[in-house]
Design goal:
CATH architecture of the largest domain: 3-Layer(aba) Sandwich
Distance between the termini: 72 Å
Strand content: 5-15%
Shape: globular
CATH superfamily of the largest domain: GTPase HflX, N-terminal domain
Structural class: alpha/beta
Number of domains: 2
Number of strands: 10
Radius of gyration: 25 Å
């Protein structure tokens, strides 16, 4: 048996994964172990180096998009990069009707980026869109630097954040699905190796198909594994029958986990970073002897890769099967309405749009800091806040509340509102349970 093609494949596949910067603890590294590739030390050197990696951000402002939108999108991309441990040095934008099919941006802008990279210590180029494999290869060839697109960056963060078997399996599946169409670029050296007279593709053309089947087989196995996990989750959810289920949903980094801690009096991990929570957390909460289940789901984000949504649908089952949705919004964010629309669209895709929803406008403390200066009279502040609340009460048909989870402000009213919603659903669905609960008409304990 000839081991040379497999050896060359492993070397190329390893180089590709290093290019993606997938962490050593990510699920796809286990795939390499199965192929007997021992590159652990190299991963640690690349990923855990002392010097913080640096990057430039690149985006195309397409027709119909404004400069303000581009700035907002790049702010989010920079926060994503920071969450991944990468420092942003500079941003590059170009107005085009459509991104260039070969190099995403035009030749002149590519040359401008190249000149900046040559004069500064830049490690990465991050694109604020999902680019094709050929675009990635062309940009890397022109700039001589590793290129990540938005999807690749999100996958990298997800790989670091995954803790449970389910989340790790979902991330590994998404990574492999993303990697599959990009295998071709890894084999160009083999295509030239033995291309003699009368041959069309060379040795690499044959080997890429062999190793594509290896990856596809692994993808199929991961899907089967997720099906088994889903079966276990279905059994677990059946055991929670006849309990009202409430799910926290919302854009990433809006304070869902902080609210989860407040309502459940548990210590769920919360951090001022994107995707701090990746694994679904479910807690039993009791308000005056009335129990319900509260779950904290993964945060949504703009331009979330399609294959990532597909992979994480089982995790989002807590939202799909919830009786009440708590849509948490960071009202201090300048584009909070756009973020609300992103969440609503994803909920619509998940067929959750018809569920009862309470909109929780969180981070009121930051909103007031940003909107009001110290010299504004208190009566003017009160008037403006009243106008804001009345406006959104009308838009949501009184199904909203304004809180500051970090300051525990107005959370008593949130408990009361949630208590009334849960109580109403119990009376509608399980009226025979009401006899087991005393003080049923009283508000929840503070």
């Amino acid at each position: 048996m000839n081991y040379l093609p497999l050896t060359l494949f492993l070397h190329s596949f390893s180089s590709f994964l290093l290019l993606l910067r997938i962490p050593q603890r990510g699920g796809i590294f286990l795939f390499l172990k199965e192929l007997n590739l021992q590159k652990e030390e190299k991963f640690q050197v690349d990923y855990n180096g002392e010097r913080q990696e640096t990057a430039v951000l690149v985006t195309v402002i397409q027709k119909g998009n404004s400069d303000e939108q581009a700035t907002e999108y790049l702010d989010e991309l920079e926060f994503l990069a920071l969450t991944d441990g990468v420092k942003t040095l500079k941003r590059f934008t170009q107005k085009l009707q459509y991104p260039d099919t070969k190099s995403y941006v035009g030749k002149g802008k590519l040359e401008e980026i190249k000149q900046y990279i040559e004069n500064h210590a830049v490690d990465l180029v991050i694109i604020d869109d999902e680019i094709s494999p050929s675009q990635q290869r062309n940009i890397e060839k022109a700039l001589g630097k590793k290129v990540l697109d938005r999807s690749m960056l999100i996958l990298d963060i997800f790989a670091q954040r995954a803790r449970t078997v389910q989340a790790k399996t979902q991330v590994e599946l998404a990574q492999l699905q993303y990697m599959l169409p990009r295998l071709k670029g890894m084999w160009t050296h083999l295509e030239r190796q033995r291309g003699g007279t009368g041959t069309r593709g060379g040795a690499g053309e044959k080997e890429i198909e062999t190793d594509r089947r290896v990856a596809e087989k692994k993808i199929a196995a991961l899907k089967e594994k997720l099906k088994e996990i889903d079966k276990q989750n279905i059994v677990r959810r059946k055991n929670r029958s006849e309990m009202i289920r409430v799910a926290l949903v919302g854009y990433t980094n809006v304070g869902k986990s902080t609210l989860m801690n407040l309502l459940s009096k548990e210590n769920v991990f919360a951090e001022d970073k994107l995707f701090a929570t990746l694994d679904t957390t479910v807690r039993k909460v009791t308000f005056n002897t009335i129990p319900f289940l509260l779950s904290d789901t993964v945060g949504f984000i703009r331009k979330l890769p399609h294959h990532l949504i597909e992979s994480f649908k089982s995790t989002l089952d807590e939202a799909i099967e919830a009786d009440i949705l708590l849509h948490v919004v960071d009202i201090s964010h300048p584009a909070f309405e756009d973020q609300m629309n992103v969440v609503n669209e994803i909920l619509k895709d998940l067929h959750c749009a018809d569920k009862p929803v309470i909109v929780i406008f969180n981070k009121m403390d930051l909103y007031e800091q940003k909107q009001f200066d110290d010299y504004l009279p208190d009566e003017v502040k009160s008037s403006l806040l009243k106008e804001l609340k009345e406006s959104w009460m009308g838009k949501t048909h009184d199904h909203c509340i304004f809180v500051s989870a970090i300051q525990n402000r107005n959370t008593a009213d949130l408990r009361q509102l949630l208590f009334e919603k849960v109580k109403k659903l119990y009376l509608e669905r399980y009226p025979y349970k009401a006899g087991y609960w005393h003080d049923y008409s009283e508000p929840p304990n503070q």
